[in-house]
Amino acid sequence: MLMMNEFGSMASANMLPFNSMCPGLFEHQMPRPPRMAFKMPRVVPDQKNKFQTDDLFKRLSRESDVRYTSYRDRPHEERQNRFQMGCREGHVDIAFANTGTNLQLMFTPNMPAMTPYHQPTIGYCDFEKERGMVHILSPFIMNGVCVQWRGRINLEKLDGVGCLEYDEERAMIEHQILQEQIERYNNRVKDQQDKSRSYRPQERVHVPEMDPGKRYNNF
Question: What is the C-alpha separation between 184 and 191, in angstroms, rounded?
């Protein structure tokens, strides 16, 4: 009886996987070396050059109009409240009007009073700097480059201006992490190569079968 397999070809209904029909067939093969997993880097090797030459970064690095994009189907007054609530919780979704690029800004939540034990470490959100506006700084990694969005948004109209900046300090930290990651990977590859060279499979000695009808001097 024939049936269609998952690839769309005909196969026997009683056909078994090859490995299940031949158990132990490959037991004496040389062991495979372990897979060398390499974690995808967070940043590119030359972040500053990419920020200065990439067309998208060139456009976004110029101060341009932005707007709040969440809850578009809700009344404007409700969106105003939700925007301020998001700022106080530490997250806001915005979009650049000229390119349509959407960003999810994350930053230290706005607190009424900062204490020595709660200092902003991931950007900030400031309602006090300018009346009727909120000023936001949000660092993140975009297309392998450490950047930060800096701008201001009108609390009533829910639009404003902002731009991307190259985050020099964070870029240096991420670059160091990248170099250490590459070095660890290269060391693992070298160790595996050394182990592979040192491995020598034992030569098999061929022992002829004994003929029961033949006499041997040793027996």
Answer: 11
